Amino acid sequence: MRGAPPVTRPFHAIHSHGFVRVAACTPAVAVGDPSFNAAQTLELAKAGHARGCDLMLFPELGLSAYAIDDLLLQDALLRQVEVEIAGLVAESLDLAPVLVVGAPLEHAGALYNCAVVIARGRILGVVPKSFLPNYREFYENRWFAPGAGVTGLTMELGGQPIPFGTDLLFEATDLADFSFGAEICEDFWSPTPPSTRAALAGALILCNLSASNIVVGKSDERELLCASQSMRCMAAYLYSAAGPGESTTDLAWDGQASVHELGRLMAQTDRFPTHAQMAVADIDVERLRLERMRTPTFNNAAAAAGWPEKSFRKVRFNHEPSYEDQGLERRLDRFPFVPHDPARLDQDCYEAFNIQVQGLSQRLRATKSKTLVIGISGGLDSTHALLVACRAFDVLGKPRSDILGFTMPGFATSEGTKSNAWALMKALGVTGQEIDIKPAALRVFEDIGHPFAKGEKVYDVTFENVQAGLRTDYLFRLANQHSGLVLGTGDLSELALGWCTYGVGDQMSHYNVNGSLAKTLIQHLIRWVVKTGQMDEGASGTLLAILETEISPELVPADDSGAIQSTQAKVGPYELQDFSLYHITRFGLRPSKVAFLAWHAWRDARAGDWPPNFPKGARNAYDLAAIKKWLGVFLYRFFEISQFKRSAMPNGPKVISGGALSPRGDWRAPSDGTAKVWLDELDANVP
After folding, report:
1. Which of residues 98 and 532 earns the better pLDDT score?
2. Which member of 25, 185, 226, 500 is catalytic?
3. Catalytic one among 53, 84, 106, 129?
4. What residues contact 255, with CB distance under 8 A and at least 6 apart?
């Protein structure tokens, strides 16, 4: 099921934007007491209903308890389990969540370890466990028949014929992309988890009812399997293990419950609980579908498996989703290119920096260039490119003096950035030189008849691009003169917004190490270089000063008030534009959904996590009006006026996922496109 939600659906509701709220539950259980266990399940189900859950997963054999051995073969207990299932079905009439509960059920003279799916007063289906563990402490073959191969059947439960088999896929008729399948414990420890075929058949959410006793190290194994299966299947993976109350005759239980999406942990419960718990998260099922669509390998795997959708039975149900504002149960990164976790950020910076160094080192080897030519402005991008160049020369055993850095002041170059550029070059030991481009620029203005040549304060795009073009022209000719290679400095954010001068300008170079790096990440990379001592200590003070400098192209002189030209005043805050860039190019999300996510991520500076060492004075917040305004700017600049610049990008290494706009990489688009579809969607669906 697909399609954008109608414009009549409320903007602030998660169900308008492709989310499904799920819960992985760990109720308290009593050994062999179905009545108690059903009551505990119902109590959690009501709590999930109050939290707006759409799908709730419970542990394996949760209605009987798992570790009850031969009690599983007692008719009195099995009959009581069926009674309690009927009670849950009746209670579910007034509950919004779909419930997936575990129970032992008899069919055709055999007992099966089952997942029972209940919704709105109806049993949707029963899925048996495919693979039964019968090693070490496990003896399931003693009690259960394996579900592997059980397909196309029905069983009688509650006086009704119920779909029964491992070939069931459950799908809401009234909530796009809400589709799920179920497997049980050992199934995902096997080499061929049934959930893989369910995913290939179309399930976007995979549920695992588990008991899974705990031994040292096992929780890490579960985490690995859940993350791996959610990533491999491009799905969400819900896992629920047995918790407090299970028999400890020979085993112990830790109640681990978790929710993963595309390999990422979205929510988890505390382990070894003394009371009932649930891990709640909003799953972006729309994003999962889009990710499968943009990854042909997934479809190829379905074809190689004989198209599992042909052999699965789809059980459809009316979900009656709420379109109220229920918040968002999902951690969002304000900076999708910059993780807030210090260890993760440190690793990302290490990898990004060394990817750049490796790419440049290989290009220098291949071209046999004697020197490297780079323009140094005293801004973030050229600073970071110079740091990469220095490390590459260190790796190659070449003297840094063969890096030729040029500061080229124009009509708006400030003394602060110029002095920072010189201080940086001296501290890093590169060869620094200065070329004043103003005389050459004046000659160009005279030759083309620009009003500035006559003393008029006309600061138009020609005025700016003459300066940007001259700088690049000088660099290329200097590279010719010194048997060198021109190193580009422009970053991913500028390329996305078209904030660069095409051709003989900062859009072009022989090799660009920054083309896959967002502006919001570059500042953290520079901080990481300082923190980890990648460069000489003498450079640290200058690097920190550069981080505090206003982002400006310094092409237009300050106005009468002394205010300098501000890039972000023109193209929007980079922190918002990088947010839009990531979600639109990496996942293909609709503008209204990007606005919804940005509103939750940026509306309150006090909420959520910030990257480590992020200045408190720079912790901004944006209301929906500002988000919509700057998203509109992004859409127009990205889709309509700047693709031709990206279609002729110089070489450079891909560094981050969702961070390559090269036509040879992640992004191919027509240079004469229009932003109309995206702008219309934004206007129609964002208040």
Report:
1. 98
2. 185
3. 129
4. 26, 241, 242, 243, 244, 269, 270, 271, 272, 273, 277
Which residue from 616, 550, 515, 526 is spatially nearest to 345, judged by alpha carbons?
A: 526
Give pLDDT tens digits for 408-422.
999 988 888 899 999
Residue 290's region, left for phi above 0, alpha for psi from -120 to 50, else beta, is alpha
Catalytic residue among 53, 60, 246, 390: 60
Active site residue 25: no
Q: What pLDDT score does 8 carry?
A: 61
Beta partners for residue 237, in sequence order: 206, 260
Rounded to 5 degrees, what are φ and ψ at 74? -90, 125
Q: In this structure, are residues 662 and 646 in contact, taking their beta carbons and an 8 Å threshold?
A: yes
Instruction: Report the predicted TM-score, pTM, of the whole model to 2 decimal places.
Output: 0.93
Q: Assess whether 53 carries a catalytic annotation.
A: no
Q: Do 476 and 503 contact (CB within 8 A), yes or no?
A: no
What three-state secondary structure class fits 184?
strand
Contact between residue 451 and residue 442 where contact means Cβ atoms under 8 Å apart: no
Q: How many CA atoms lie within 13 A of 548 on its CB side?
A: 11
Using a 10 angstrom Cβ sphere, with 0-12 exposed, 13-18 middle and 19 or more buried, the burial of residue 359 is: buried
Q: How far apart are the first and last CA of the chain?
A: 26
Distance CA 478, CA 121 (A): 78
Pairing of β 484-488 and β 236-240: unpaired
676 is catalytic: no
pLDDT at 415: 86
Q: How far apart are alpha carbons 390 and 539 in whole angstroms?
A: 12
**Is residue 373 a contact partner of residue 406, using CB atoms and an 8 Å limit?**
yes
Q: Report the alpha-carbon angle 559-518-422, nearest 5.
A: 55
Residue that has been written with the tokens 């459950």 in this structure = 170
Residues in the chain, overall count: 687
Element holding 127 (H helix, E strand): strand 122-128
